[in-house]
């Protein structure tokens, strides 16, 4: 199936088929269908499901630059594990830099939290 094969009314039934495959343990096949839907229609529901079931495959749907943007959005919102999962298989300089940024954001929050906790005094 090519990207152009996803007609407007078919996306919903294809999402259902993809979820059925995922729940049958055929995650890779289901995610591939969701990627086709996203690439053809920029369907946010499909992208959301990809992030939910297989975040490391997000970049296959949106490309490296957009995957980094999505990952750093999650880092900014304190979802560091999801950030790192999205970036997991990016073995280029962009992916490395993004992982470092994600790690630094997590570390900043931890340091700030530890400072607040250490400055609190018990009565």
Largest sheet: none
How many individual helices? 7
- Name the average pLDDT: 85
* Broad structural category: mainly alpha
Order of helices and strands: HHHHHHH
The helicity comes to: over 70%
- The geometry reads as elongated
Strand content: under 5%
Question: How many beta-strand runs?
Answer: 0
Radius of gyration: 18 Å
Distance between the termini: 68 Å
Describe the protein's architecture and organization:
The chain has 123 residues and is mainly α. Helix content is 75%, strand content 0%. The chain is built from seven helices and no strands. The chain is elongated, with a radius of gyration of 18 Å.
List keywords for this structure.
123 residues, 7 helices, 75% helix, mainly alpha
Task: Give a brief rundown of this model.
The protein has 123 residues and is an all-alpha fold.
């Amino acid at each position: 199936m090519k990207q152009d094969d996803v007609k407007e009314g078919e996306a919903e039934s294809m999402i259902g088929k993809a979820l059925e495959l995922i729940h049958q343990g055929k995650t890779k096949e289901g995610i591939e269908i969701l990627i086709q839907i996203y690439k053809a229609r920029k369907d946010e529901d499909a992208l959301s499901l990809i992030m939910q079931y297989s975040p490391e495959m997000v970049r296959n749907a949106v490309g490296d630059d957009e995957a980094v943007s999505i990952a750093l959005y999650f880092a900014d919102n304190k979802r560091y594990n999801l950030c790192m999962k999205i970036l997991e298989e990016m073995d280029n300089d962009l992916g490395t830099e993004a992982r470092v940024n994600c790690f630094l954001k997590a570390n900043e929050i931890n340091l700030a939290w530890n400072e607040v906790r250490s400055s609190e005094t018990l009565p």
